[in-house]
Amino acid sequence: MLTPAGGILALIPAHNEAPRIAAVVEGAGRHLPVLVIDDGSSDDTAAIAEAAGARVLRQTPNQGKGEALKTGFRRVLADGAAAVLTLDADGQHDPDEIPGFLAVWEQTMETRAGNAQSRAPVELVIGARDFRAMPPSRRLANTLGKRVLGWATGREIRDNQSGYRLIGRRLMEAMLASGESGFGFEVEMIVECARRGWAVEWVPVRTIYAGKTSHINPVPHVARFLTLAWRIRRARGRGVAPDERRRDTPPVRGRRDF
Ligand SMILES: Nc1nc2c(ncn2[C@@H]2O[C@H](COP(=O)(O)OP(=O)(O)O)[C@@H](O)[C@H]2O)c(=O)[nH]1
Ligand SMILES: [Mg+2]
Known about the structure:
Elements: E1 8-14, H1 21-29, E2 34-39, H2 45-51, E3 55-59, H3 65-79, E4 83-86, H4 98-114, E5 122-128, H5 136-153, E6 165-168, H6 169-175, H7 184-196, E7 199-204, H8 218-237
Parallel strand pairs: 1-2, 1-4, 2-3, 5-7
Antiparallel strand pairs: 4-6, 5-6
The chain binds guanosine-5'-diphosphate (GDP) and magnesium ion.
């Protein structure tokens, strides 16, 4: 067992991050136990992460960030964890901001315990970056992304693609049914919260670029994103309440009809 039942741990999906993973694991390890999912790396990511103090699960061949997150979710759900905190393996998230997420989570737990009926349960806390600090192409992509998803879900979205998140147990369980294996998985988490009537909280985080390149292949990613956004919007237009449609019909793996 990685973390006591009811606990929280850091989950880091990684693909070929050997030069950067040690600092991320050590930083996160100052706040939480760390689980790294090595997703078919061809470098020493797994060995370096282990040496830095993480527990490592390996999957081969490379299956994508969404699949890696699901592998981690299955493991921590089996352990009985209450939530996970995900961060990227490439150093773009400052692990010393983890306490900010934990503080928001604790606050929402207290609200939930104090008055369960007063507000929608929070299942997701997202680290929102300052788009003004991004290179122009990323600023444009992220700004369009948050506007489109805001339009589709009818909610205020501050950062739809940030991988720095705290994810509750119920959302992890729901996301195991997702057929999205890649970077769209993180967008789907927000959609899932909108569908089920779960609140999303935001915490401001540092925006770190420093000449980073991205693994995201923009054309298929944007195409899938727009298709998803259009489906959500259309379903809302038909007056389907976010969390009613699926109450009696568990989602079918690989088929997302909403
Ligand atoms: N599990 C997994 N993680 C990946 C894969 N590709 C990238 N990542 C990780 O996902 C995070 C974000 O990827 P990155 O390319 O930096 O995207 P960006 O910063 O959002 O443009 C990094 O920590 C990567 O190590 C993959 O194929 N599988
Ligand atoms: Mg990155």
